[in-house]
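User: My advisor asked me to double-check a structure prediction for Carbonic anhydrase before group meeting. I don't want to rely on an old file, so could you generate it fresh from this sequence?
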Amino acid sequence: MSDIEKLIRGFQRFRARYFERDRKLFSQLATQGQTPRTLVIACSDSRVDPAIITDAEPGDLFVIRNVASLVPPAEEGGKHHGTSAALQFAVCDLQVANIVVMGHGHCGGIRALMEGSGDESDGYIGPWVHIAERARQKVLARWPDASPAFQHRACERLAVLVSLDNLLTFDFVRERIEAGTLRMFGWYFDIENGELMQYDAEKKRFHDLYLGWD
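Assistant: Sure, here is a fresh prediction for Carbonic anhydrase from the sequence you gave:
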């Protein structure tokens, strides 16, 4: 079976088992439109699908996926702002109530950044992952003698915080945060252990969401 045939077979199973079971839901979504409450900014990595990880239903999440789950700072000029445009659509048009930035373990984008591929000469990838350069610098300053694996895991988490900070550079995000109509969360998915962690700003650490939640 070819790769594409496998996908077609998967669609056939989806149609028979999932779509037919929830035909009313899909009809409602088609006629009434989407009203997701949560925007998830996640990595393009094939191993970390936010909808699967959260067991979400169609219509629950508005998802932005890019290399390393990064949010660029707000900036004027230029013509192609895919992540920023999707962010604006989610916040201003769909009026989501929550934004989740979800990083993950063994992220190829963060590995590229940590291994020095975040320079301007590295095609499209280098300038993009350079968004998290502040996280890389902090890791190298705080844990200069740690193993590369440790540094990578640390940078993956700190990059989430960089994106949360960058979200506040968008006026339409910051104004809603200050008004209390929008909340932001930093998540980290440990793909090896199946653990999902959330950043606690007061304690300045990530804690496991599986424990303590029914």
